[in-house]
Amino acid sequence: MRRALAILSLALAAIPAGALAAVDTAAEARAAQVEALRGEIANQIQLQAYDLLDELVYGWLQQPVFPIDTPVVLADVSAPVGFGSGLQALIETHFTSLIIKNPATHVVLAHCPQCSALVVHSGAKGTVVARGVDEPEALSSAGALSGAKHALFLDFEVEGSSLVLRARVTSLQPALPIVYARTLSSSTSSPALLRGGDRLKSAAEARQEYLDALAGRSVYLIPLHFGLRSYASPPSGSTAQGLIAPLFWLEAGVEAPLTQARAWTGSFTLGATWAPMSHAGWMAQVRVARLLSGTVSSLTLPDLYGFVGASIISLNGSTALAFSENVPSIENIIAADRKTDPHAIFPALQVGLELRVKNRIGVAVFLENLPTMNSPSIGKYLDYSILQFQTFGAEVTFCF
Question: How many Cβ atoms sit within 10 Å of the Cβ of residue 4?
């Protein structure tokens, strides 16, 4: 024996230290992989359990167990072996939330501390020690039922690759008669498609809502803009007349997505403005917008877009004089001689933000740069030396 131990010691001593370290590293890597796999399986089991609970409560909404609000004790929640109390706590929390958000099930969860505690019942046939829910006679004699006459049991088991929920409601009587029972499996039940805890619906209803949303979401849109452009007043020391009245614009055109997810869109619109005894005008505009609130436009939540654009604006009437230089232009002199309205035409560059709701209604604010504008009657809202913004605008959009 001593000789064998000596030989083993010499053999271990002969193994290089690097080889032993490599063995330890490989074992740690395998342990990390096993732990990551266990966490992934636990997450899948939790999601499947939530789906089964959603399906159970949805069934109660369609066919309630009780015709009126009835106190029920959540007697027991059992999780698959190996998942422990953590999964049980998650299941109980989610189920309680579902019951509170869906009062139409007529199930009212009642608090009963003695139902899960051990009780002792002595009678002619002997003494019984059991949980309160298993001994309704003892609970009743102790007056601990708190008005609840029914108990709910939720049992989860793993069978193959499926998770099975067995739910049953028993009457708290000595025989514990079952008044409701249902078994659900993750392999046969419908997943909770597009539904929240406060709006449970079947898979068919969720799919129909999705198809309706897609059907109402055409590729091309016709935007109708109601816009207002306000021009900055000249500096306080200027002798030029300022305070140009805001111009109201009505614009319509076509808008198309540049990507399938509507992350980029482009539009072309034509607009018109008119005010009695003041001006009439037209505008042509192109825009490119980028989605800022995500990578894909939402079917249910508002989308925030940033956009840039370029316009050409033409005005006729007395308002056009405010967009000309101090020295009358040849066109204005000829117009005055012929007793026609003054005319002004100029380009504009836009940058702004737009909030779209379900791709149907939008609200936008923007700033405009007038690169060729030298009129002393128009000031600047923002001045960045090489880039000035003379116009502030707002729009309300309806898309068809």
Answer: 8
